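Please produce the structure of this protein holding phosphoenolpyruvate.
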Amino acid sequence: MPSAALNIITISFLVFIFISILISVNLMKYIIFNWKSYLNISESMNLSKVVSKLPSTKKYKLISSPNNFYNLTLKSRYPKNIYAAQNVDLHGKGASTGSIDIQDLVSNKIKFCIIGHSEVRSNFGETDLIIQKKTDLCLHNKITPIVCIGEPVDIYKSKKTKNYLKKQINKIFKKSNIYNEVILAYEPLWSIGTGLTPKMSEINDILQFLTKILKNYSFKKIKILYGGSVNLSNIKEILSLQKLDGVLVGSASTKPSFIKYFR
Ligand code: PEP
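Below is the modeled complex.
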């Protein structure tokens, strides 16, 4: 075979491989298990073991978020699993009793951190301004923030969700910044832990809206997830939403049967 033809075949093959890799990376769904403070250390260990035994797949990127207290123990026992912190502190090392320092995440290779979860907002009075600072702190330290936003029930009922989310995004991100990877989790507050979920068409509508307004900001990589009462009976339908990059799951993710879905 003439060498020119051979070169064309080789180049086409490489282009094909490159495009396939690009497509599979883009289609990969992020699945975040938020174990909150539901579990003790041995239960967290057992679930980490279940995660570690799942065969690796290009379909899902599994990220476990145990109680911050257990992160390092679990990471040393199951180093291949990916862990996210459930929060981080704005105070640096030093006289900060009860603080979770960003350097502790960096030095222990915890690459993700949930920021602005509704339970942190309500239990600890966290504001969008604090969330903005924590997001910047994470990005500055090469940790991917999983930023949570979502509307309360009265806003949902009065059909002002989009306006509410737009304001949250506007307070957390600056149009003049260039952001590295950010994960944005849309979690309606009335859906978290209640068993209630928006209709698929509503989630899709919000996804399209978020995709549009996020174009006003510069993200090198932005993923949009849905969170709120995701469980074994609705996960398939929710993940079938094409524009959705994944899910953030609370209580259902503490059950091995749910985790095994991602085989
Ligand atoms: C959450 O805490 O982010 C969450 C979505 O919880 P649940 O799945 O239990 O509603």
